[in-house]
């Protein structure tokens, strides 16, 4: 048995906070004891137990005084580079980084080598993921070899366990293919996600066509590259009725288009990354390739529009787009270095600093967008703390500060290195087992 006492529970479903103890047995939540019910009730389960008498680290009491207890976080846009690019990250190191960041559910993108357009590669990923201690899921590709010409065997891949479909990393330009893919996703009851950047409009990717591009004497990537494909795919989503995810939104116009599509009844969802609601193109000028990403960081008005979208529910998912790259790759010139940053270990802290502490979201709303909403969309276990539910939890101190200096991830391509961030994760629990523990805290 694992007993967690004196914590503050975040309930993203009922949109509330309350003090309670939790009892966990056989991987499930078997007791929730709110503080109001404990007063004057005598000894509760777990009280008086000497945890030093216990032999197993998971058969103990955790004193969560000062900590918040939330459902384990879920990230539905992650790159673990396995198979094919494991010098950047692999499933084991990626899962370790996820656990450190408080994540218990991960959905991987399919741009591996080989790509996930076949059952064999999908099976390799899912089987390896089962050994990590957290829940590893994977999307499959929309098109064969991510070439945008022929649909992958979507029905077969769904039957083999694909969580959804995407060619993330390469935009789909053939409108007929996109419509057919949405129709299949609708039939299979799976979400389908789109990377919205029209390459015909981009001269230099990863850098906003504005102040940042001017600084590097480039033409960069204009906002129209995103807006044009977002508009097309939202119209197709309304037509087909598919559950469509607009990935890593960067432009304020895209937020408004998404808002309008939802008002019309389209089953559409928006992703916001922590870097897009935290940084602007100024970071690319200051930090160079460490802040180069697709789509690029844009202007302050765009950042604020993304936050507004998170506030009113237009954007319902926070996803990291965790994209590891080696030091050698990121040390190349701005036009040659790959785009992307890692994000699993800093996401919760950035959400706390940029969204909660600045008054944009409450803790329940933040956790809803980082856990409940992504779990519901992808049909994943988790996203709530309730009797009989899997004990997938993150325990964190909301105000304690940590310095971004080292990572569990194989890669360290982060523009946040050196910063002090609030929100120290002390425990990540998956299926009732402690998969990450910060040893700086006793108890």
Could you characterize what this model shows?
It is a single chain. This protein is an alpha/beta fold and 443 residues long. The chain has helices at residues 35-38, 91-100, 119-129, 154-159, 175-188, 211-215, 224-240, 252-263, 274-278, 282-287, 300-312, 327-330, 347-356, 363-378, and strands at residues 2-11, 16-25, 28-34, 60-63, 68-71, 73-78, 103-108, 135-138, 165-166, 192-194, 244-246, 268-272, 317-318, 393-403, 420-430, 433-437. Mean pLDDT is 95; it is low at 39-55. The protein is globular, with a radius of gyration of 21 Å. It folds into 2 domains: 2-69 and 388-401 and 418-437, Urease, subunit C, domain 1 (Roll), CATH 2.30.40.10; 72-378, Alpha-Beta Barrel (TIM Barrel). The chain contains 14 helices and 16 strands. The strands form 3 sheets. Strands 1, 2, 3, 4, 5, 14, 15 and 16 form an 8-stranded mixed β-sheet that branches. A 5-stranded parallel β-sheet has the order 9-10-11-12-13. The chain has a 3-stranded parallel β-sheet with strand order 6-7-8. Strand 15 and strand 16 (433-437) form a beta hairpin.
